[in-house]
Amino acid sequence: MNKGRRTFIKRTGGVTLLIGGAGIIPHLISCSDNRETISNAPATQLTAWVRLDPSGSLTIYNPAAEMGQGSMTSLPLIFTEEMDADWNKVNVEFSPQESAIYGSDGWSSDRKVMLSAGSRITKGYFQIMRKAGAQARHIMLYSASELWDMPIESLTTENGLVIDEKGDKKISYGELVEHLQLPDPLPEIDEIQLKDPKYFRLIGKDIPRIDIPQKVNGTAQFAIDIKLPEMLYGVIERGRVHGAHPTLLNEEAIKALPGIQKIVLLDYGVGIVAQTLEEALGAKQELRIQWSEALASGFNSQKVFETYAAKADNEEEHDIITNQGNTNEVFRKAVKRYQVDFKNDYVYHAQMEPLNAIVRVSEDGQRAEAWVGSQQGFDSKLGLPGALDLEPDNIDIHLQYLGGGLGRRSMTDFVVECGLLAKEVPGYPVKLLWTREDDLTYGAYRPLSLQRLKVGIDKEGDISSFAHIVVGDGNRLLASGIKNAFYNIPNQYAALNIIPAGVRLKHWRAVGHGPNKYAIESMLDIIARDQGIDPVEIRRKLMHNSPKALATLNKAAEMADWNEESTVGRAKGVAFLERSGTLSTGICEISVDRATGKIRVHRFWSAHDAGIVIQPDNVRAQIEGGIIMGVSSVLKEQLTIVDGRVVQSNFHDYHLLRMGDTPELIETAIIPSAQPPEGVGESGTPLVAGAIANAFLALTGKHLDHLPFTPERVLRALNG
Questions:
Q1: Rounded to 5, what percent of the chain is helix, strand, coil?
Q2: What 8-state DSSP symbol labels residue 531?
Q3: What value does the mean pLDDT of the chain take?
Q4: What distance in Å separates the CA atoms of residue 376 and residue 409, rounded to the nearest whole number?
Q5: What DSSP assignment string belongs to 161-193?
Q6: 646 close to 301: Cβ distance less than 8 angstroms
Q7: How many angstroms separate the CA atoms of 127 and 193, rounded?
């Protein structure tokens, strides 16, 4: 490439640097439109890009959803750190939903995916954004060296400036726009060339989040806020039994109602498109539907535990997760054997913003666009290509802020539904809304399950075998957190026994970690109490080969003054887990009203090793919020099904934790680390159940075996 070709001058419009998996693709493109930029890009897997204006301002494109977890700040901040740009001049926008360009390999080594779930955003994009930022910095240095005819080795960067080390010259990144040149060839950036963490000036500091001001002053736009010209409204009646098929009995009468534009018959429901939301909801109330039987018909979520208990030991039906050593044989020979069943009910996501989307299909049916708050998915066009029979390139997704995801918005069912309604009225945008009742009764829940734990103790008093069988529905949704990699137990067995129930299920914050770690950590305290061992000490012994895990245990114990007695009527409980690479220990202090059965969590301490932490204050906020959500799910939240129908319908009977019941103190410690970031957004929530159960055991001598710990169940345990 000659100098004339690699020189790019643009005096007014700025320049876009396309960032690839190995760095900046050797093209400099001047354009302000995302679609034009992508169409001009080489056919290469690109993962992020940035626009630099002559004023020195940068617009960095964020490829992840922003649902309150802070990725709108953390990912651009990583890029800015390595580019050595001025953070005060950074603007952030959502990237287009193009996984070939903006995807991460955090979910799969052989494909790029745009999915904001599983606490994998920062972890999946960390090295990508660092290398991309370092490549951009190298271009700034090279361009200045060419401009000044100086060796690149004599130049450095600082906060958006290229500086001659002797201090004779300096130039801002914005001033370099008209002088940008690319080295030929463009060098690869090795990890060794990236900043040493000790020189970070942004990463690890408490940088204010970009999205907070708009969310505080009310100008932040969520999908539910959007109104488009000529917009129609859609609703769907899905019934109360999951999977039942509808037969509409009064279609003509519904068509005759005011404002009704279209009735759309779906396999599992009846859709209505109307001029106003009120007209759509009114027509929905008038629907007369005959529902078929379904797999879920007759299902009872409380009675099913009897069936699960009978099936737990049927090894022929086990889907084995881990099988280390000879667990059955060692258990049979154990000096002391323990067997305990733990149970958990369904839990609803209860995200703040109701599910909604807007889809407009062009009049000729050849293109579509959607406005949606989504956690995205393995299909970056959110299922619309299949629903609309369109090529992915003919669909534009306008990602918006979303008011809570928690796993529910990693499903694309509500987007696909909106597309199916919009397909029937081409040319008009259609906004589909799920009411709270829709989402509670036809949502997708964290699975209920029965956990059977069988543990053997050898003659030295050590845990020699640990078997964990989970019975329920949901396949691998039940499996996360079932392994005990940080406890030195020589013989371990874990398996699933899947019994389909026909109820819709989905990832819920930390997925199976909540029920599984509750059972495991409770079992340890049951053993410790029976053996006369301190709960922290039994874990210290099990962690002797896992120093990083042990460090979190010791830190949490120090924070909670573990060895100091609680005040009369209170007790402490401890729990440990690993989630998405982060190691965490939590300790809570509770009291129990023995007359009403109400548990009150007074204080909660936790310590976490999450690798390099990009935004410490934000991480603490994530953990604290997760702990509060954990307390809510453990003490309050219960979704039940009788005769195949969800009993609860809104927040009057699906109870959430109220502000007056939140802990008086939540204290969080982050263990310093120079290792790459791990996932931290889900770490706090699954700590809670085990810690509360163990505090209850310490306080009362009784163990709680069924989530949630409702007052009725607490009284039953106390009086049992």
A1: 30, 25, 40
A2: H
A3: 92
A4: 8
A5: EEEETTSS-EEETTTTGGG-B--SSPPP--GGG
A6: no
A7: 12
Can you list the domains of the chain with their CATH numbers?
3-207 (3.30.365.10), 223-294+355-433 (3.30.365.10), 304-347+445-719 (3.30.365.10)
Tokens of 274: 């109307």
Range in 20-24, 284-288, 459-463 with the lowest mean pLDDT? 20-24
Give the C-alpha separation, 508 to 511, whole Å: 5
| Helix 687-700 and helix 616-635, axial crossing angle in degrees, nearest 10 | 60
> What is the pTM for the complete model shown?
0.94
Q: What is the DSSP letter of 475?
A: G
b/e sequence 334-365, b meaning 16+ C-beta within 10 Å: beeebebbbbbbbbbbbbebbbbbbbbbeeee
Q: What is the DSSP letter of 195?
A: P
Specify whether the CB–CB gap between 357 and 223 falls below 8 A: yes
pLDDT digit string, tens, across residues 359-405 = 999 999 999 999 999 999 999 999 999 999 999 999 999 999 999 99
3-class state of residue 25 by DSSP: strand
- CB 83 within 8 Å of CB 137: yes
The whole-angstrom separation of Cα 162 and Cα 147 is: 11
d(CA 84, CA 58): 12
Residues in contact with 17: Cβ distance below 8 Å, sequence separation at least 6, in sequence order: 24, 28, 49, 50, 51, 52, 136, 139
**Residue type present at position 695:** A
Q: What is the mean pLDDT of the segment spanning 265-288? A: 98
Our measurement of the distance from residue 712's CA atom to the centroid of its chain's CA atoms, rounded to an integer in Å, reads 32
Q: Of all helices (H) and strands (E), which one includes residue 331?
A: helix 327-332
673-708 pLDDT, tens digit per residue, is 999 999 999 999 999 999 999 999 999 999 999 999
Query: How many residues in total does the chain contain?
Result: 720
589, 570 Cβ separation under 8 angstroms: yes
SS3 139: helix
Q: Are 47 and 212 in contact (CB under 8 A)?
A: no
Q: Which two tokens stand for residue 283?
A: 């027509």
DSSP letter string, 549-596: HHHHHHHHHHHTTTTSPPPTTEEEEEEEEEETBEEEEEEEEEEEETTT
